[in-house]
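Good morning,

Attaching, inline, the backbone tokens for the sequence recovery test we're adding to the shared suite. The designed sequence is right after.
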């Protein structure tokens, strides 16, 4: 009987600790600020740690070049950003929240270089796994 109680207690403790560590990235970490800051660190400083977690699996990336709009998938965008790992951009960053509600937000991220400005319109959505980037539209001015 004593052995059965010990086994049951061990099983309960194992279950409790396993449940506590089940999530590798808790939704509480994926706040709006965390997502935007992770994206900015990637595009301006080449810091790609955690970038894969902030993109929605079906995120869409669009880049306007002249009259042409080029679309990228999440995998293509991650590959491009990984290629620029630890590359420091020579620009200043300015952000402004264009629109926001409980479920989504559009944040404008301007990258100001000496001769032009790249504006990124980042749409983030509140998902069941925290805030995620669902769309990025970039244009050059």
């Amino acid at each position: 009987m004593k052995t059965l109680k010990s086994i049951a207690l061990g099983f309960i403790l194992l279950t409790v600790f396993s449940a506590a560590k089940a999530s590798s990235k808790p939704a509480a970490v994926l706040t709006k600020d965390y997502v935007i800051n992770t994206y900015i660190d990637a595009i301006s400083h080449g810091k790609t740690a955690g970038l894969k977690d902030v993109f929605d699996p079906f995120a869409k990336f669009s880049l306007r070049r002249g009259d042409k709009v080029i679309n990228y998938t999440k995998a293509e965008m991650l590959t491009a950003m990984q290629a620029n790992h630890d590359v420091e951009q020579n620009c200043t960053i300015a952000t402004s929240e264009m629109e926001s509600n409980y479920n989504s937000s559009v944040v404008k991220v301007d990258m100001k270089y000496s001769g032009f400005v790249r504006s990124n319109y980042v749409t983030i959505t509140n998902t069941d796994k925290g805030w995620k980037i669902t769309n990025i539209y970039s244009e050059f001015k």
